[in-house]
Amino acid sequence: MRISLRQLEIFVAIAKRGSTTAAGEDIALSQSAISASLAELERALNQQLFDRVGKRLLLNDHGRAMLSQAMSLVNGAESLEQTFLDEKAPSMLVIGASLTIGNYLLPRLLRHFWQQQGYTLGDSVPPLQVLIANTADIINKVANFEVDIGLVEGPCHRNDIAVTQWLEDELLLVAAPTHPIVLEYGPNLVPAKRLEKANWLLRESGSGTREALERALLPHVTQLKSSLEFNDHEAIKQSAIEGLGIACLSKLVVEDALGVGKLVKLNTQFGVLSRQFSILTHRQKQLTSGMQRFISHATANI
C-alpha cells in the first residue's frame, strides 16, 4: 500500500479547513509536516488533489472525487480504534435534528433514554452534542460525517444515506382567534379559495415542514401567498398568535397554544396532514454500540 491512513486524515483536514496551517491546528502537526505529508500523498497517487490559490488550498476534481471515500476510511479507522483499543474510553455521540424534532421531541426522548440507563438527571448524564438545523442541512451533515445520527422531518433521497422510517407527525393549520378567517368561518369548513387570499407564515425552502405543506396543499390551493418567511417554528407560532397570518405547524409545536386558546385549528377539506419523521445514518459509517443503543431506544419508545 502506497498511502497511509495518516495521509488521508491530513488530506481530509486540509479539505475541510482550506490550508495546511489550519489543518495542522486541528490535528496537532506543524505546517511543514502537513505540507510534506500532502506532497507524499500526491506523489503516491501521481495526481494533484488541490488547486493552490495564494495561501488557500482548494479541492480540484481529483480531490473532490477522493474526499468521500477518504472520509469514510478515516471514520472507519477511528471507530475501529475506539472499539478495540480502549472500550472504556469516553465518547460523545453527535446527533443532528431538524427543528421540530430538536426543540420538541428530542429532549423527551433523551430523558427516557438516560433514565433507562440509570442516570440521575440534572446531576450526571453522558456527553452528547446536538446540532439543530433544517432537514436539508441535517442531511448534508450526515452525508459529510459531521453527525453520527440524523433525525429529520422531511424526505431524504440520497443513495449514500440509510433512511429508517420512524414515526408520523400530524400537521395542523392554525390561526389566532381574531384572524378574519376564524371570525368568518369559526368551526365551519374554510374554502380553498379563501385560503388563497390569506397571508401564510412559511418556513424557509429546505424545511421539512414547508415541503410537506406544499405537497399536501398545492394540488388544492393554487398559491400560498406569503409576505413572511421564517427559519424557526417558534417565531411562526408567535406570529400566528399575534394574528399576522395562517401557519401550518406540527401538533408538537402548537398543542400548548391550542390548549389555552391562543390559536385555533382551522377546519379544511384537506383532512389529516402528516409527514414522516426519519432516522438517518451514513451507509459507510460504522454503527457504534452507542449509536445502536440510541436508535433502538428511539424506535421502540416513541
UniProtKB/TrEMBL annotation:
<dbReference type="InterPro" id="IPR036388">
    <property type="entry name" value="WH-like_DNA-bd_sf"/>
</dbReference>
<dbReference type="Pfam" id="PF00126">
    <property type="entry name" value="HTH_1"/>
</dbReference>
<keyword id="KW-0238">DNA-binding</keyword>
<comment type="similarity">
    <text>Belongs to the LysR transcriptional regulatory family.</text>
</comment>
<keyword id="KW-0805">Transcription regulation</keyword>
<dbReference type="InterPro" id="IPR000847">
    <property type="entry name" value="LysR_HTH_N"/>
</dbReference>
<dbReference type="GO" id="GO:0000976">
    <property type="term" value="F:transcription cis-regulatory region binding"/>
</dbReference>
<feature type="domain" description="HTH lysR-type">
    <location>
        <begin position="3"/>
        <end position="60"/>
    </location>
</feature>
<keyword id="KW-0804">Transcription</keyword>
<dbReference type="InterPro" id="IPR036390">
    <property type="entry name" value="WH_DNA-bd_sf"/>
</dbReference>
<dbReference type="Pfam" id="PF03466">
    <property type="entry name" value="LysR_substrate"/>
</dbReference>
<dbReference type="InterPro" id="IPR005119">
    <property type="entry name" value="LysR_subst-bd"/>
</dbReference>
<protein>
    <submittedName>
        <fullName>LysR family transcriptional regulator YeiE</fullName>
    </submittedName>
</protein>
<dbReference type="GO" id="GO:0003700">
    <property type="term" value="F:DNA-binding transcription factor activity"/>
</dbReference>
